[in-house]
Amino acid sequence: MSESDAALLARIFRQESGRCVATLVRLFGDIDIAEEAVQEAFVQAARSWLLSGFPPNPGAWITTTARNRAIDRLRRESSRHRRHAQAVLIERDPDDTSVGASVGPMNDDRLRLMFTCCHPALATNAQIALTLRLLGGLDTNEIARAFLVPEATLAQQIVRAKHKIRVNNIPYRIPADHELPDRLRPVLTVVYLIFNEGYRATSGEELIRGELCAEGIRLARLLAELMPDEVEVVGLLALLLLTESRSAARTAVDGSIVLLVDQNRALWNRLLIAEGQTLVRACLRRNAPGPFQIQAAIAAVHSDAATAADTDWLQIVALYDQLTTQTPTPVVALNRAIAVAEVDGADVALALIEVLPLDTYHLFHATRAEFLARLGRLDEAAAAYAKAATLTNNTAEQAFLQRRRGALI
User: Is the pLDDT higher at 387 or at 32?
Assistant: First the structure.
């Protein structure tokens, strides 16, 4: 298989694996069986497609092949009579949603699997990590970087979560209406992280993974349809739309990164901005602010500015102050400091971030480098850019950071 074919197969895996796993969980009611069958199907695809070429519908090919693999496995395990009978039934009617699943009010396999993974019996971090692994197309290294934890720790959390789902017979379904509010927060976080991985890819050659951005927005729209009265759901959708509106301006023709201050705002998607701003105004009328609504309001302020110089940084700092009271995390503090630098100067902002426990986070060092450069401390800034470049596996980010460093030395 050529390098281009391997890259195409990897992209198909990222795009289709979550959908395929969710479908097989519905059919077989077992996450491990579904995940292993999909992985085996992709191994077979690497061999078969090398000889016959890529099929017109790779996702359908993978799903069918994985389903057949799972059926064969269940038949071989003769002691598991119930699952053998289930496999026979599935082979007879693969579209029967009554098998291995409890169908909720919305017929979407991925949404059902997301709520299963985010069951309150699981620890919050495990809920989010497992969902990103199964549905987000992310490997454990990428998820560990998002959580800022060691990969081995993250892998153990995922294994324990899958075991708990199995031994507790956690149902594969969208919860009933009265159960939804208690299950909402981790689901919203997962959707946000899926989108965020697409918007700023942890690894690879390109900054943006468009299929993950699209999936995040699709899931946010489904949640808004399912829970139209949940204002944080609306806030999340607004945030994703307003963020996505800038995608076309975030990279140059050669794929290099373009900072917000340098973006051609004529490339921003005005339809997404209009929809996102409408949703933000709807949230404001409800007067029940939550973290995603506040972040959406920050994005709306950016979208209002015709030029970077027109940005209302005072309002953004005020919104970050509000966000900090609800989500007092180091990353929020870092983002707040970026706004503070525009209002009070880089010296004040630098003092704010020096105490943050973010030494393994590349954007911390990149932000610190920017502040140091503004203060004329060029050697320190160059060293901070070099440190940041060692902490990201994204080629576009590495190149950007090295260019910034090169401009200082």
Answer: 387
Cα–Cα distance, 331 to 345 (Å, whole number): 19
Give the whole-angstrom CA distance, residue 35 versus residue 41: 10
- The three-state secondary structure class of 230 is coil
pLDDT band at 322 (very low <50, low <70, confident <90, very high): very high
Kindly indicate the confidence band of residue 100, based on its pLDDT and cuts at 50, 70 and 90. very low
pTM equals: 0.81
Segment 16-20 shows an average pLDDT of 86
The CA distances from residue 397 to 233, 244, 308, in Å, are: 31, 18, 22
Rounded to an integer, what distance in angstroms lies between the CA atom of residue 49 and that of residue 146?
33
Question: 287: buried, middle or exposed (CB in 10 Å: 19+, 13-18, 0-12)?
Answer: exposed
- Cα torsion for 126, 128, 130, 131, to the nearest 10°? 160
pLDDT at 9: 79
H helices within 77-172, ranges in order?
Answer: 81-92, 109-117, 124-135, 140-147, 151-167
pLDDT at residue 105 greater than cutoff 50: no
CB of 384 within 8 A of CB of 372? Answer: yes
Closest CA to 239 of 166, 302, 287: 302
Q: How far is CA 103 from CA 95, 99, 192, in A?
A: 13, 10, 24
Cβ neighbours around 380 below 10 Å, total = 16
Q: Which residues pair with 257 in a beta bridge?
A: 251
Token pair, residue 322, equals 């509000």
Inter-CA distances, 273 with 117, 138, 229, 268, 269, Å: 32, 28, 22, 8, 6
What's residue 307's pLDDT? 96
Question: Which is more confidently placed, 229 or 180?
Answer: 229
Residue among 397, 325, 395 at smallest CA distance from 361: 397
Highest mean pLDDT among 85-99, 209-223, 227-241: 227-241
Phi/psi zone of residue 300: left (φ > 0), alpha (ψ -120 to 50 degrees), beta? alpha
Dist. CA 350–CA 370, nearest whole Å: 9
